[in-house]
Amino acid sequence: MSPTGRAVLITGASSGLGEACALHLSRVGFHAVAGVRRPEDGERLRAAATGRLTPVIVDVTDEKSVQAAVHEVNELVGEAGLWGLVNNAGIAVTAPLECVPMEQMRQQLDINVIGLVQMIQGFLPLLRAGAGRIVNVSSGLGNVALPYLGPYAASQFAKEALSDALRRELAPQHIPVVVVQPGAVLTPLWSKMADAGNRALEGAPELVQELYRHPFLGFMEANETSARVSRTTVDDVARVIFRALVAKRPKTRYTIGRDATGSRVLSRLMPDRALDQIFGGTSVWTKLRA
What we know:
Order of helices and strands: EHEHEHEHEHEHHHEHHH
CATH class: Alpha Beta
Largest sheet: 7 strands, parallel
């Protein structure tokens, strides 16, 4: 299916996967509507694109911001409607669950889960008008929950469940819902995860810090090292999202990278106790690449 003349909105386009996706989609013929939170990020993206990119300011956690973005995109696309909504915006909270501040837990779910639903509710009328589809960017951690990534994994499991429910609800309306599951990809998210995790650990009582410090720091180091040597890039993810947008009959799920594929297979084949032995206190990415 040709991308020419079709508009796709990508959230979280200021950096990382979202930025790569917006630029790639604009290069291959889509009109990329890049959801960003700051005007300067939008102007930088516009300058780097081919001309088929329009930045839109949107905070997925703010209902008024989402509604303003709906109005702006409606003015942009008109009767043609929207061909795709790529829900990519997200953060990753990492720390031992005993140490996670509730403010961070709420933020994790507000951005990754509530924000996703809020965007879908707001833009479904435009997707119906454009006979479009929804692409939700999840993670291999939507298959297996790892230690020290409980909040993030919870948000990814929630995305998977919401995507399944939504796919079945929208099937009679012929609006496909697709999940894209990337494995470890080195983006600015990694350094943010490490910094926030260290702050959360430092805020815990000294006895609790001693219990978790060594395994947690080892876990974070192993995961960052694994992401650095990963063969999966942001451009790989962007190309898969493109495929999900142009396929006449898209898959329900696309996994990217050995780690994401491996976690999906293991979650289906192995009992919980076996998974506990494999992943208890260690890095899933290191295990799967060994």
